[in-house]
Amino acid sequence: MPRPTRARHSIASLTAPVAMGYIPLGAVFGFLFVQAGGAAWLAILSSLLVYAGAAQFMMIPMLASGASIGAIALATFVLNLRHAFYGLSLLNSMPARRWQRWYAVFGLTDETYSVLTALPPEASARHMALVTALNQGWWVLGTTLGALAGARAQITLAGLDFVLASLFAVLAVEQWRARADAVPIWLALAAYAIGYTVAPGQALALAIALSLLACALRPDPAKDGRREAS
Amino acid sequence: MIDADYILAVIAAMAAVTVALRALPFVAGRWLRRHSLVRKLGDTLPLSIMVLLLVHAMVGSARDNPAGVWQELLAVAIVAALQWRTRQTLLSIVAGTTAYVLLRNL
After folding, report:
1. B69–A contact, CB cutoff 8 A
2. Is A214 in a helix, a strand, or coil?
3. Which among A21, A73, A188 is the nearest to B90, CB-wise?
4. From the first residue on, what is the mean pLDDT of each consecutive set of 10 residues in chain B (106 residues)?
């Protein structure tokens, strides 16, 4: 039968670019985690259980500075808030089997989401768990390689942690591509400027609270933003 | 070494928060879609948060960089331009980070 072969082929071609991103980035995560003083097996465990790239990169400096668990949980919440909106567009294409459904929900990262939305709904339902497992496999493999390398290496390059800023820049560009609306950028910059002026140590938390408030109070963009979209 | 029990507790907390957020639309999708406030936040908030996190990371880097903020701005411009044109996440991140590491260490 040619049909399953084609489906498998298209899955391989969709998950290959994710592999090219996840293996090296996972390796950088594992490397930085071990260099910061975490045990290699804990780096791998976090890629198995947390499985959220940006949040995992963010946890490294927070762990190194001994941040409280509540502060790290709050930062994770803010950073992964966007994931709460991903599922809305996948509601009608979830796998039928219960454990597959829960695993797919657990592993709904930015990249897996973009692969799944590229598939037709019925193919998406059938292959969601497989695509998720392959993608997580690349991430865990990369983490393992990086953690093992980090346990041996003794190099300290200033600026290597800029990988986190680069990742945020990529995510910001992709958010912009999805919805070219400049207001959220200006809101964020103004909120950060205010936060930094009022309390430099709490600038991020303050700015997030201000942005949340401003976004909630903002006039509905769907009503007056149509002419830009056309 | 960072204490393993502390890291285990952090991993448990992060995993719980992440799964809860990813499961939310499947548990309360109908409720979420009915509320215009949720939709409005979904339209605006993700980009705001990404810009905030980006600025915060840049400020953190610039603070222990004696050369000033232009190196951070240049590296982020490289990442954004590459990502906008190529959509190759790995290429953008590697190029931007490499550029930054070179600027800092040369």
Report:
1. no
2. helix
3. A21
4. 95 97 87 79 84 91 87 96 91 92 90
